[in-house]
Amino acid sequence: MRQMTFFNTLLLAGSALFSTHVSAATPRYGFTVNELYTFNHPYAAQASNELATKMTKMAVSPFSFYRGTSHLFYKDMTTLPASSYTNASTNKVWLQGDMHLQNFGALRDDSANDIFDINDFDEGYFGAYVWDVRRMAVSIILAAKENGLSSTDRQQLVRDFIDTYLNKNSEFKGTSEELTYRLTTANTSEVVKDTIQTLAGKSRSSFLAKYTTTASGARKFQNLSDLVVVPSATYTAINSAMSSYITSIPAAKRYSNSYYAVKDIRQKLGSGVGSLGKMRYYVLVQGATTSTSDDVVLEMKQQSSSAVAIAAPNLMPASAYNSNQAYRMVRTAKAMSSNTDRLYGYTTLSSVAYSLREKSPFQEDFDYTLLTSYGKFKTAVEYMGKVLARAHSMSDQDYDATLITYSIDKQITDVVTSSSSFKDEIVNFSLDYATQVEYDWQSLKTAQQNGATLY
Fold it and tell me: Which among 70, 165, 175 has a CA at the least distance from the CA of 127?
């Protein structure tokens, strides 16, 4: 099967493409359908209905398609030319791996700070820092176009994002500020500040009322369309797997075993986009006391190899995560954020890796559709650039010097010798790749109309 001429053109043009932008994207129906099938088919036997939901969600818009196809992005990274602004050190950075606007949000951290941060680490892995930057830049182009912003504004938004990303790395260079830096209502504004402020109106009681009910003093999950009763064998297996989950939590952050006593278990359907098809469960546990008012819901999620590994196979040594993909995800969360949920942990179920964390009452997803003007969008992506810089900077030698032995903020600051040229490079990449995503999205829609097998 012939891969698209977009890649071949880029390989021939190299960095020259970035000085005078000429779109090189092209339709690649067969390639796209084959990649969708190859990636999703392994989950068809366990969750065909969830995969059908995934395809429906991805068909809504190019941005939705992009959210569900990080594997396509990293397949393409194996063929596209490298950035002119990398070196050996900046090609080995701890990445979030699936950067886009809806992988940010507000949350209450383990120190009770209400903050704006990255909220998804499933694809965390080592790779070139520009892959996180590129992937985020493309998402900005796609979302801003969906929101009706002009081509000029869309390109400027990418530059705004990169400006704060580079400036924050420069500020972190030679300091340890990244370890304590956070975005709160005190240093944010507009939609980001509004998102953080929603947490003040949330409560555990209203969260529990949404998903659970009490009868005769016992709390159980409600019978909801997206919370499915699990077979007794699955219930027993998950209950048994809790012991290894508990031991995966560092002793300093571990509660007594009674805290994790299981009250009820349901399969959760329909959450997210890219992860649809993988098994996800909600586990209701006792919490700090025997009162039903402080019960806790854990999200237990199947993990697999990071999509980033498609482009950088074996760059993260298996010893870094004990060859357990859920531990890889948990370590990424801890490396790239501060005061992480103390309920982060992992276990295995029938030899399949699962991560666990609290499904917190105090979290709010970021709604990019609210960014209806250039000014609102600019403010938001500037904050996101700062957050990404902090995440990259704190996941270097500050987190584990045996894995990454150098200062990432220094390396990135030093390697980007011309911020204007770097911005030109990323803008032109994001324009081309956003067009490619639109072609691939159309391929999905055509495949659905043709009745093609996508999973």
Answer: 70
